[in-house]
What we know:
Strand content: over 45%
Radius of gyration: 14 Å
Number of helices: 0
Shape: globular
Oligomer: single chain
CATH superfamily: Jelly Rolls
Order of helices and strands: EEEEEEEEEE
Largest sheet: 6 strands, antiparallel
Number of domains: 1
Amino acid sequence: MAVFFKKDDMKFEPHPKFDGVKIAKLAGKAQDSAIGVSILLLSKEVEIPVHTHDENFDSIYCIEGNGEIYKEGSWHPLNQGDYCLVFPQEKHGVRCGKGGELKLFIVHTPPLF
């Protein structure tokens, strides 16, 4: 079963854990137990704090905007076109810069939702 969304059909809702973050859930446990796909929108100067996932890989691609990503013990610049693969139990976080919104394409395996 293919999952297809037109850009205008993607519904963003407040993230259940992080203020200032919106999420469009594109695929998850309802479609398959192996993968979860979403787009995150972080408002200006919003941070998803450093955290880990016990069993999930976290694939993060920056669609637009700029900010910083926490990996390997420190914060690094994150810009449009940058990509980071985070392994289970690895500390990571993301924060939006001062210039505006940060849009991220996220893949979790197994899915979080």
